[in-house]
Amino acid sequence: MRMAVTDPSVHYRDIVNSLTAAVLVLDSKLTVQFANLSFYQLFGGTEAETLGYSIFDINEAVWCEPQLRSLLESVVPHDVDVRGYKLEQTFPVIGARVLNISARRVSREGAVTEQVLVKMEDVTNAVLASRAAAESVEKTHAMMTEVHHRVKNNIASILSMLRIEGRQLEDDAGKEVLQRIALRVESMGSLYELLAINDNTGIVRLRPYFERVCHAIEHMASAENMGWSIEVRGDDLPVSIDDAIALGAVVNELVANAAKYAFNGRQDIGSIRVHMLDRGDEIHITVTDNGIGFDKDQVDPKSTGLGMRLVDMYLGALEGEIERESGPMGTSCFIRVPNRTRSTEFASSGTITAPRASRRTAVVAPDRRMNGRADHRAGATAAE
C-alpha cells in the first residue's frame, strides 16, 4: 500500500488482487463496492453478480448468517472491529468450509470512512485437524477412565478376599498381617479411585489422596481406636502417578505404625498429623504424632520390619530421605523428596536446572536432634 502511494504506476487494486485471502470492500449499507480476485476464485460469481449488491444477497445468500449479519451491521455505526469470527457454512462452489472472517472500518489519511473492509480466510484444514486431535484426546481419556475403573474394581475384589480370609482366621498374628496387607492394597485402590473420577492428566493431587489413605486406616482401626484422630493438611501438591503410588505407600506405613504403636497405654486423646509443604524443587512431608515415642532397641517381637523396609525402598526409588526423631512427647518422621513433577515442568518450558546429586535414604537415630527443625516436626510415628 505504501508503494501504491509513492509509485503512481502501482494501483492499490493490483495489490489487493494479489492477496491470497478473499477481500471485500463494502459501503455503509454493506453493499459490495469491490471484491478482489481471490474472492471470485474462492466463491465464484462475476463482478456483474457481485458489485452493487448487498453482501447478504450474493453467493446464494450464504453470508446472511444472523450473528455475522449483526456484527457487520455494527462496524460503521458503532465502530466495531470483527476479528476471528468463525463461519461454518456450505458454499456454492467450494462446499463445506470454515472461514475466519475479520471486518473493520477503512481509514484514509488518519480519518475513518464509511467503508468496511472484510477479509475471509479458509481455515477448514486447521479446524478439522484441531477437532480430530480433540476427539482423539477425548477417546484416550475415556479409555483411561475405563482402565482406572477396572483397576479400582479389581483392587476392591482383592480387598474383599483379604477381609473374608481375615475374618476366618483365628490366629491374631495372621489377622494382623492380612490387615496390613489390605491397607497397602487399599492405598493403591484410593489412587485409582481418584484417577477414575478426575481428568486423566497423569497428575495426582497429594492432599485428597493422603486423606483417602488416612481415612482407610481410621476405618480399618475403628474397633481398636481409643480416641486418636488423623489430620491431613498443607499444600495440595501435584505429582505424577508413579510418585503418588510411592509417596502414598510411605505415608500409609508411617501413619499405620503410629496408629498401632504410638498410643499404647495412653488414656488421653492422641493425634496423628500428615503435613505437605511445597519447597519448589523439593516436597517436604511430615508425619507426626503426640504418642509415647519409641526406642529403636525395643522392637515389637511380632514385627517383621517389612513396613520400614518398604518405606526405605520407596524413598530410595524417589531419591528421597527420611529423618526420624522420637521421645516422650511423640515421634516425628520428616521426608524430603525431589519434586520431579516441577522439574519436568521446567524442562518442558525450556528452563535449565542444575543436575541433582544422587540421594540415598538416610535414617537419623532417635536420640539425635534435628538442628532446629522441631518447629514443623513435633511428635511422630513409632517404627514397626
In short:
The chain is of the alpha+beta class and 384 residues long.
If you had to describe this structure to a student in words, what would you say it looks like?
Helix content is 42%, strand content 23%. It is α+β, with helices and mostly antiparallel strands and 384 residues long. A five-stranded antiparallel sheet has the order 2-1-5-4-3, sandwiched between helices. Strand 4 (95-108) and strand 5 form a beta hairpin. It is elongated and about 100 Å long. Residues 1-5 and 346-384 have low confidence and may be disordered.
Question: Layout of SSEs?
Answer:
Blueprint: H1 2-6, H2 12-17, E1 22-26, E2 32-35, H3 37-43, H4 47-50, H5 66-78, E3 82-91, E4 95-108, E5 111-122, H6 124-168, H7 172-197, E6 203-205, H8 206-220, E7 229-234, E8 238-240, H9 241-261, E9 271-278, E10 282-289, H10 306-317, E11 321-327, E12 330-338, H11 340-348
Parallel strand pairs: 7-9
Antiparallel strand pairs: 1-2, 1-5, 3-4, 4-5, 6-8, 9-10, 10-12, 11-12
Total helical segments: 11
Categorize the overall geometry. Answer: elongated
Q: Give the count of structural domains.
A: 3
Q: Over all CA atoms, what is the radius of gyration?
A: 34 Å
Strand order of the largest sheet: 2-1-5-4-3
Strand content: 15-25%
CATH superfamily of the largest domain: Histidine kinase-like ATPase, C-terminal domain
- Spell the H/E element sequence: HHEEHHHEEEHHEHEEHEEHEEH
Total number of beta strands: 12
The description of the largest β-sheet is: 5 strands, antiparallel
User: Which structural class matches the secondary elements?
Assistant: alpha+beta
CATH secondary-structure class of the largest domain:
Alpha Beta
Low-confidence stretches: 1-5, 346-384
Query: How confident overall, as mean pLDDT?
Result: 78
Helix content: 40-55%
Distance between the termini: 82 Å
The fold-level CATH name of the largest domain is Heat Shock Protein 90
